[in-house]
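S1.2 Input.
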Amino acid sequence: MITIASLIVFLAFYTLYYTSKRAVLSYDLGFEKWMQKNPKQTKITGLVLLLTAYGFWLFTQSLGCGTLLFFIQLMAIGSLIVLLTPLKKISRFALLILFIIIASLEFYYS
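S1.3 Output.
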């Protein structure tokens, strides 16, 4: 459940990042072009995803711990996206492999 919340936080921040006017954006995928052309729907989608991820954190942890971990994760993922996306260091395949490994470790140890 924590891995799913992490993935949702990543997707939410990534969608909100692509609505920024100051960010250096690359258009490698089709949905990135759509996100830039439709900023209002993208912002709503990003905020709904953030609320969903926060709900997952509250469901798995208590109110205080879930809120703290959500904001720590949001700051960490957000800073990595802001720093690594203009450098084109975020690979789709590397992220997919990373989340598969993390999910398998989470299910193995829970």
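S1.4 Remarks. The mean pLDDT is 86.
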